[in-house]
Fold:
Amino acid sequence: MQLYAGHSRDFVEQATRNAIARRLEDAFFEAYHYKPAQQEVTSWQNSLFRMAYTLERGGFDDHGILLEYQLPLSSRRLDCMVTGHSTEEDRNAVIVELKQWSDVEPSCADDCVTTWVGGRKRDVLHPSRQVGQYEEYLRDMHTAFAEDGIGLRSCAFLHNLNFDFGNEIFAERHRALVERHPVFTGDRQVELQAFLRMYLGGGRGEKVLGDVLASRHAPSRKLLEHTAEVVNDQQAYVLLDTQYVVFNRVLAEVRAASAATGSRKTLVLVHGGPGTGKSVIALHLLGRLSGEGRNVMHLTGSKAFTENMRKLVGSKAAAQFGYFNINKRGDIPPNQFDALILDEAHRIRETSRDRFTKASDWSGLPQVDELIASARVCVAFIDDRQIVRPGEVGSSVLLREAAERAGADVLDFELDAQFRCSGSDGFINWIDNTLEIRRTANVLWSRSDPYEFSICRSVSELEALIRQKQDSGATARLAAGFCWPWSDPAADGSLVRDVTIGEWSMPWNAKPDAGRLAKGIPKSNFWASEPAGVYQVGCVYTAQGFEFDYVGVIFGQDLRYDWDAGTWVGDRKKSYDTTVKRSGEQFTELVKNTYRVLLTRGIKGCFVYFEDEDTRRFFQSRLG
Structure:
């Protein structure tokens, strides 16, 4: 998806008469159903005028132009891409990152600088690193550049800056980056024109533009399939923008804390909704810090996720994956770890003590205090809207209070790019708005959106869709609200078909303590990763933390929309989750969060069947 695609002559004509920003604004509203921020519109007005002026003066009058082009399976958009042929007849495209920066300062994080963004000074990626990551991402994820022979280069245009060797942009530590992905300032437009001419001097860019738009996206890379590579620091995923800033800032904090003579402590809070890449960054950090010889562990509250990681990385690396109760006894010395990576920190519990723990075997501390005491740097990846059990108390507030008690500094980051749901921020926002979890601008879901979403009229139709996707080579799973009993396996190891709707039935995934299972049935921890998991229905406890190409959701009657009252109603009598049923006033909120988690597991599509007719009718009314 892009907000503009056309010929360079048309682009120049519209930009130089101040019409291009309005066109992008209209295209943005049509695509996202809300207006862009005025700051973004002003940026388009200023930066694209300067880009058009540069192209016009350089004689680029036979080229293709892409503006605000969305990266495959991501919500991140490129500022500008120019397409054409070289003088040797090679098809090429050049990404141009446009910046209005007028003041840049050093940052302590690698490949980052500090500038004024969003009302305050922030660490941001050096523009050469940012545009270079876009280039690498497209090479990985787009067949036009990976298979179809279109060359790709990138640069940045900081049109409000004048060239100065003393500027941080051109500092020695960034020299290799700038050489690979050049930066051009406002007074170096001639040099920018020469760079573009080197790859696009042969013109005829409309044909190349058409080839880019017609090419398919490469298959998405699944987190589980590449975990071993990531942990061994093979960079199976490309980190973009804020992801890369977080990665490098954490590295800087861990290195500084390790070198400090005192008891310096830091808590890094990384906020992000479903699909923003929290687990990808976490695994990158584990791989890099391990490679540097740091004492580091990756911790979660999910047995399924942790056991999958241990299985995939092998016995040597498995010891670096553990659980939030690692310091239950309180016998780990303070600052034993250089870093603890807390993935899905919203699943931190009030205490590490359970009903089997003797008083003498428990630290007596809240679980969050045990964790922060154990490491110089704790990195907490958190989504406050993914708490699905009353015992899960992990929140930004809880972590901040624990950091204050420990005398730790706190750093805050927000991940805003979407890599699930075909990169659609709109789908996540629409789900949140429809479930009345939070108010967003996405009241209606556009049927023309590239992300596949549909409501099935029968659960048989839903199952058939999921099986079809799995048979075509995609990963696909069925999941449901906890609205049916969960039986032990039969004597022969087969699973009881507990999930029953009319004449249709299917078993839940196996219980964690199921014992012997019949051949071909995956254990509970591996339902999400083994292909045979498609023959069972998963629940939030086996699906949370995982992603699939397609997810099918059975929306039970534990949460219904009351059409007459115009509100959501939680129904304990329809729930078989004994823990959540005891949550008092939290019940409806927790069940909403449960369905939010299930509905956002799909990378490419989500299909849903509603048991309750009014709930189906309400969702149907929210389709554009």
In short: The first strand starts at residue 2 and ends at 7. The domain at 421-621 is CATH 3.40.50 (Rossmann fold). The first helix runs from residue 8 to 16.
